[in-house]
Amino acid sequence: MDRTNNYTRAMNQQSQRSPEKTEVNQQNLPKLEQVEKAKQVAKNLNQDIIKKPGSRAGGDVSKMFAKPSRTPSLNLSGKDFTKDIVFSYPEFSILKEKDKTFSELVNLTQSPSFQTEYSDFLSSLSSEKWFEINSENPKKMAQFAIIAFLDQKIDREEMFIINIVAEAYWELQQNNHDIGAVVGVAPKTLSSENIGKYLAESGFPPFADNTNDYAITHRKTPTELEKIKTGFIEDFGKRSPVKRTVLEYTISHFLDNLYGEDLSQEMLIYTQVKLGFREVIQKKQGTMVLLSPELQIELLRQTSSNPSHSSQEHSITFGYSEDNSKFYEGVRAISIPSPALEPLPNVHSTKKGPKGLGVLFHDLNYHIPLEINNPYLSTFTRIANELKTQSSNPLLTDEFQKFTLVMAKKMVDRELDFRRNPPERTFWNNLYWQSRGQWRDIFGSKVDYIKWYNEVFLPIINKSLNETQDPTTVEKIQSQFFDIQPFA
After folding, report:
1. What rounded mean pLDDT belongs to the chain?
2. DSSP code of 72?
3. Contact residues for 358 (Cβ-Cβ < 8 A; gap 6+)
4. Strand boundaries in 192-296, DSSP class E
């Protein structure tokens, strides 16, 4: 076939049709003129707007008709959660890396596989081995738990438990060979048949023996405790698999050195309170137990004969803050670790061991038992508040103001051990030793410290005691008063 001739014929045919095309174009001229006029109007309008920078519209006219940008949000079950909504929840309110955390959650929910993976995660929580199913990716496990909480598929306690277990798996994956590194993680889903024996072996009252090595020495009567144990076991069997989960984790080089920087929080506590330890092989490894924070607090409260705060009253949150304002309300701040959120810091000068798990272990297995075992918890809280108030008293010298504030911060931490001595004597011993250990940092002489103790501290103590509702207790405490001057 002659391609040249074909080309020539095609050009001739096109030439013959061109008049028709011209005729059609001529018919469309009015429309084209309208378009050109519209463009000119738009151009003039745009120039007019640019000439008026004070105008609310301002800028390029095309931007006047642009779609407004949509605020990023988590869409869960048809409900939008903006960043502000998420961090208005008290569980997330003290987190510092809010933008990063929220962005990662949004990105996860927008991934193509999210719906399938999220559905699988929720289904796994009905299994006794839910932690094994999700252990490969601890961060995603923790993120899914947070999303499920916001989505009202799980409650706060379950969210916290899942994140604590995820933190342990994340620590294990770091393959850290340092002192106190996590070398073993073994969550267990227990039942009503074995929970009592397990808690007894792990040092948890009321199932563990009542000795000074354990946490709660001010206990209810044996008859009351038997009823508490029976009721606890019955209720435990009704809990979800997640809520029946306890975490065992093992750290290396346990107590290689009793002093210095080679201690983790777990090692430090082991030297003081035998609560939450499964097995310790000194200079080799130690295995600890973490229960659900809410479950542990309520169990210890039921054991004690002292009044104390419920788990709902304490501030249990993700993240860590130096703000101790909650302490002045008589409750504690408890930090929950999570591999999906910002890491928790080392506390109390310890530099070894898993930071997040260590902080939680410190809160739950040290501070909470001390507070629950303190028969004068409310009195010490009143003393701390009064000290804080008096620290700004203009009638006090600068030194007295400074030391009064130092003592307010010291007292509000309520690190007071009532396990071994009569409580009335312990009351004064604790007050004395708390103040005596600090005075050299402020006062130039022992005489100034004794003056502060007698003129500021004792009046505050007596005022706080007089506000108590139990005159017999006040009389007992005041009868045990001893003069500090010979010991200062």
Report:
1. 82
2. P
3. 264, 265, 266, 346, 347, 350
4. 245-252, 277-281, 285-290
